[in-house]
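Example (one chain per record):
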Amino acid sequence: MRSSKMQMLMDRTAILLSTACAIHCLFLPVIVIMLPVLGTTFLGNEDFHRLLLWFVFPISVLALTQGCRRHQDRIVIMFGILGLALLLVTAIIGHEILGEEGERLTTVSGATALALGHVRNYMLCRKNKCGL
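Predicted structure:
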């Protein structure tokens, strides 16, 4: 029972972090234009995505694998792998190879895929009462 609650909490946390990453990526250019000082802070730096990834990656892997062990849904794992792969590739080669717009599009796509995987994982675990 405790394991199930922890897994669902990790899914919710990963959804929140993926959403924060997507929101940061989409709205930071607008905010930077409106508040130039913000662009000089850590939030305006590409390293912010890398920092988020240090939290997103382990939480996502744990939550998705725990849920998938119980409900055996391959769509969850496919969304999770796709999302994490896109986020990792973007963090590693992002701006240099993809350019600013490509980096933004890839990051948002990865965060969206990962969030969808977590939402599906969360819903399946609630429906199947995983671990209860």
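Caption: The mean pLDDT is 76.
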